[in-house]
């Protein structure tokens, strides 16, 4: 039954993003940033964990999950380091994901010949 919840919630997230792309002038990069920030806000107010328990990968795999990881890192760093943890936590928690995105993005650019849209 959990896989049904994951598909349902993931589908809603994808549908909302598609609506934003088609009905607004927002570029995909801004929508991605919006998703990460939304995940961080949901984590901050304590709603991300219950949603993750309900939906599993449907909520944690997309960019919302990355925002949650960043916020968790900030919370842990603040508990351990105090105020300076506010600046360190997100970098420490998100380092692996960011590094992987940069490395695989670079490798993809070497393999494929991308062209700018006109």
Structural write-up:
- The chain is an all-alpha fold.
- It has one domain.
- Helices cover 82% and strands 0% of the residues.
- The chain contains 6 helices and no strands.
- The longest helix is centred in the last third of the chain and has 27 residues, at 85-111.
- It is globular.
- 20% of the residues are buried.
- The model has no long low-confidence stretch (mean pLDDT 84).
Q: What is the gist of this entry?
A:
The protein is mainly alpha-helical.
Topology:
Layout: H1 2-23, H2 28-44, H3 48-55, H4 57-60, H5 63-81, H6 85-111
Helix pairs in contact: 2-5, 5-6
Number of strands: 0
Q: Oligomeric state of the chains? A: single chain
What is the averaged pLDDT score?
A: 84
Estimated radius of gyration: 16 Å
Helical percentage: over 70%
Give the helix tally.
6
- Low-confidence spans: pLDDT under 50, at least 5 residues? none
N-to-C CA distance: 45 Å
Provide the number of structural domains. 1
Helix-strand makeup class:
mainly alpha
Strand content: under 5%
Order of SSEs: HHHHHH
Task: Please outline the major beta sheet.
Answer: none
Overall 3D shape: globular
Which keywords apply here?
118 residues; 82% helix; mainly alpha; single chain; 6 helices
């Amino acid at each position: 039954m959990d896989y049904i919840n994951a598909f349902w919630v993931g589908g809603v997230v994808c549908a909302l993003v598609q609506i934003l792309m088609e009905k607004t002038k927002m570029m995909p990069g801004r929508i991605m940033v919006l998703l990460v920030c939304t995940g961080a806000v949901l984590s901050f107010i304590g709603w991300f964990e219950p949603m993750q328990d309900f939906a599993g990968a449907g909520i944690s795999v997309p960019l919302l999950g990355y925002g949650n990881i960043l916020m968790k890192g900030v919370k842990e760093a603040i508990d351990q380091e105090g105020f300076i943890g506010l600046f360190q936590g997100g970098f420490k928690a998100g380092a692996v994901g960011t590094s992987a995105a940069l490395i695989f993005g670079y490798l993809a650019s070497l393999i494929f010949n991308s062209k700018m849209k006109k």
